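Pilot study result, target chain (159 residues):
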Amino acid sequence: MADLSDPVVGHLSFNRFFWEREDAVRLFAEDFSVRLRFEGEEDMPLEDAQRSAYAAFAARTKEILAEAEAAVYDYYQEIAPEYREMFGDDAGRIVPVVTTAAELASIITPTHLLIPRSVREDQRVVGLVCDCTWEPGLGLGVKFINEQAVEIGTQDIVL
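Predicted structure:
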């Protein structure tokens, strides 16, 4: 496995399609261990746009994730009734009624932050990828562009 020491993001190891390392996020009033992943290739350094996306996100992580919590809470409130109907008797366990964002910690688990290769130079893109109880195969994704949560849905929006 190749290693990379980047002056902005620190020490990374290459794993199949990503440069990565352990990191942590605080979400829903809990601390989670996540993988910080940069899309790339073993023989290529990180893009400047990826460094920029990481640096901007890291500088305001607490504020950005607080906004994301509120957006995910609103998203959950919107989609939960339909899922409760689908799960019937199991709904209380899989898609429980929650009244605060902190309660989402029991059903949403962040797994990694993904910084893809840049498509547009004027956009700093970061994806938060989570497992969730109501979509075990598709999970939950939050896409940030220029440090704003712009889309919430299944993981495919950020992968």
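One observation from the pilot: The helical segments are 48-59, 61-87, 91-94. A full batch analysis is planned for the follow-on phase.
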